[in-house]
User: What shape does this take?
Amino acid sequence: MKIESCPAFSQEEKEILQEIMNIAFGNATADLAEVIDIYVELNTPSIQLLGIGDLPDYLINRMNLHTENSIVAQNFWGDFKGSGILVLPNRSGRSLIAILDDAELNDFEVKPIAGQEKEVLMEVGNILIGACVGKVCELLNTFVTYTPPQVIHHNSDEYSAFVMSFDPAQTAIIMETVFRFQKIDINGLLLIITNQEAIEWLQKALHNFMEPYE
Amino acid sequence: MIFAQIFDMVNVGIVILDKELKVYKWNRWMEIHSKISAQEIIGVTIFDFFPEMKNPRFLRNVKSVLTFGNFAFFSQKLHKYIFPFKASNSQGTHFKYMRQSCTMGPLRDENNRIQYVYIMVQDVTDVAAYEQKLIEMSIKDGLTGVYNRRFLESRLAEEFERHKRYLRPLSIIMQDIDFFKRINDTYSHPCGDYILKTFASLIVSTIRKVDIFARYGGEEFCCVLPETGLESATKLAEHLRMKVEDEIFRFNETEIKITVSQGVAELKKETVSAEELLRRADDALYEAKETGRNKVVGQCK
Assistant: This one.
């Protein structure tokens, strides 16, 4: 179900959310450069409203961005509630290790490379999801708490379990952006999925956001 | 008042830092494990007491928490610890420092502005010790303490893939203790076990750290030699053969001499799998056994 056809979410609300995301992701880009010292380009985000029953197919489709992916997922709680998902090409963890880290991390004798990749993916996922969700929250005057990030391997049982973990009876808003780490030329996909409980709150928050301008 | 009491009673370390990373709160747990009192550390930059924490990863995560209000997680598995506190090592392990699972998050004022960062520190040394023991049990042979067959096969598969990518030499030696059944029958099974253990130690003390030595089954052992061609592997096998032949194994005052037969094989471009390499080394070992024992046969086909 596309957002246009959903009576619960008006075209106006969609436009406000789109505007908020543009501002939020713009702010996130600037702050990310400061925090992780890498310029991350975040493309103009898109918004869709889907029945969660359609979500597994949607995710499978979107996660096929690369032949093999590394996926970082993290849930967030608060008035604004849902999941953040980061999809990166497989082995991008290695390139990230090379540019992000201190000498200690590159000591392959001390830590196996698979462990380091997981570590760096979790950290980058945590920061990227936190930056985008955090900036949306800031504009909507709320804050959230997070679960620890989880690295999910493509085509694994945990991947299937994750995709199937969404309640099909619910509706979700999907905010999606393609991002690119400039220094290492890696493209990825960032999805923020809010669940039904958050939609009602979100509608109110969107109107509150617009109030000063009306 | 009540929360202040809980703050000092919980079995978790809690530290609160201000935006300049000066310590704002330091609970009793932190006092006990760091041996630094709250009085000493409050108002002082955390790096003055823990300079090793001033690394890019920690700084990046603090910045992220202060900027985005997200949480940072430092799992024991990946980070081992943040604060270098002495470990209790109650499970018989020898960790230098307490293994910690830490969470960092934002603390906001009444206007929702982030003013502080908290760090919660949980001692997970026992869990890490159990995990280490389990890992060891799953990859090592219980009797000899060297790697088991499963671990050898998985490492050999990895080395095989590495060879395919970089075309670096790789060889293996299959070893079988000669007339081992006779040792068991003549001197008893405990003596047989002693021979296996001592033989394994002798080999481990001779090979390099990068070599992977495993008990392949019964009295059969296998040694994977990365970055080693057939000629060097055969030389090493011959050296090991002589060393074993010269060694006197003493069990309950009884002196026992043993010998070992060995088959050596090198990975070639046309080798299609790690199993094929094992099979070729095994064929060479069979030839060594068939042609008189206590010898090395190299096979490169």
Q: What stands out?
A: Strands of chain A lie at 40-42, 46-51, 69-77, 82-89, 145-146, 150-153, 171-181, 186-194. The domain at 3-213 of chain A is CATH 3.40.1550.10 (Chemotaxis protein chec). Chain A has six helices and eight strands. Chain A has one domain: 3-213.
